[in-house]
Amino acid sequence: MEASRWATGRNVLMFAALASILLCVVGYINTPERFFQSYLVAFAFVAATGLGAFFFVMVQFLTGSAWSVTVRRIMENIMFTLPFGALLFIPIAFGLKHIYPWMDPAVIAENPAIKAKTGFLSHDAFILRAYIYFAVWSLWIFSIYRQSTKQDTEKSKQQMYVASRWSAPGLFLAVVVGTLAAYDWLMSLEPTWYSTIFGLYILSGGALTFFSIVTLVALGFRRAGVLKHAITKEHYHDLGKWLFAMTAFYTYIAFSQYLLIWYANIPEETQWYRHRVVGSWFPIAIAMPFIRFIIPFFTLLCRPAKRSLNVIGLIAVWSIVVEIVDLYWIVMPVYYKNGPQLHWLDFATLAATVSICGLIFWSRFKKHKMVPVGDLRFEQSLYFENA
């Protein structure tokens, strides 16, 4: 990438980060509780996206995928933001008493079910687990990323083999540790509720957001005349397929969770949905099947739609916005029982976390090639065609 173009992108992201961080500081001083509540939604958004990237980069290495080689560096750079979530977690660590009801001794005293979980749901154990999660993810991500970038100069198949060996157990860690993180950071907001499928619910939403961001970044580069010939319409067609597939998979997981809870009709399980159909939360709950599934699914159902840059760009934006709405719907009913109460901190915290991750993502393009030129399948990817 040209130095001037890279510097322009960096300056825009840096200005957005500084401005939004300043707003977050002001919000924290004025309304600390609302800051931490809004920040949890923003943090969950970037963490889930990073986990989606982590998972699918490893899938590319394990399957020996050729079509995605020219797009893979964008994917890897999104994945690279996940280890820095350890820094973004610091506000969560300092704001536990504002976020989680199990931090309140009065709540624990009144509820025997929560009291029985105090060995797990405690301040020190919660923070320790979080940093173990990030340490495990970071070890795998840095190792895989190093092999991929090393191949740019080595141009050897050895790096492909090493990355694949890391990826096999890494897939297991991405799902299992990601599920534990979802339990800690989001499910424990209602500590008497449980769902064994909740982790996949969060991870599938993050995976859809990841593919949406990859699509938008690639389209942005194309508009700027960057990678125009490396990422062709055939690659966009496959990204459209992934947007379609992940929309269907998310819906399958979300519906499975609802169906199992509805069928069992156990009060400890049904309470989660009851809290999200009260007051003005109800229209959002009713809208979810339409905005999460019906609209994007049927829009992308036909082949021409998946080959239209405008259509997949629109669906990518739509999916990102709906993912934020979904996370808001997961988190905020814990604090606002009768309906959403939008606050400017909802936008400021999201802008801060996204712009910080954007800076980390963008910095990689100065240090390394924009595409994995050393990958032995690079030529094959350039001339890839869909059937």
Count of the separate structural domains: 1
Structural class: mainly alpha
Which blocks of ≥5 consecutive residues have pLDDT under 50? none
Helix % is over 70%
Distance separating the two termini: 32 Å
N to C succession of SSEs: HHHHHHHHHHHHHHHHHH
Shape: globular
Largest sheet: none
What's the number of helices? 18
Number of β-strand runs: 0
Gyration radius, rounded: 21 Å
Average pLDDT across residues?
95
Question: Can you characterise this structure?
Answer:
With 387 residues, the chain is an all-alpha fold. The chain has one domain (3-372). It is 76% helix and 0% strand. It has helices at residues 3-30, 32-63, 69-79, 85-88, 90-94, 96-99, 105-110, 112-115, 123-154, 157-185, 198-223, 233-264, 267-274, 281-299, 303-306, 309-331, 344-367, 378-382. Helix 2 runs parallel beside helix 17. It starts with a helix and ends in a 5-residue tail after the last helix. The mean pLDDT is 95.
Q: Which characteristics define this entry?
A:
387 residues; 0% strand; 18 helices; globular; single chain; mainly alpha
Topology at a glance:
Blueprint lengths: L2 H28 L1 H32 L5 H11 L5 H4 L1 H5 L1 H4 L5 H6 L1 H4 L7 H32 L2 H29 L12 H26 L9 H32 L2 H8 L6 H19 L3 H4 L2 H23 L12 H24 L10 H5 L5
Helix pairs in contact: 1-2, 1-17, 2-3, 2-10, 2-11, 2-16, 2-17, 3-11, 9-10, 10-11, 11-12, 11-16, 12-14, 12-16, 14-16
Could you write a compact summary of the structure shown?
The protein is an all-alpha fold and 387 residues long. Helix content is 76%, strand content 0%.
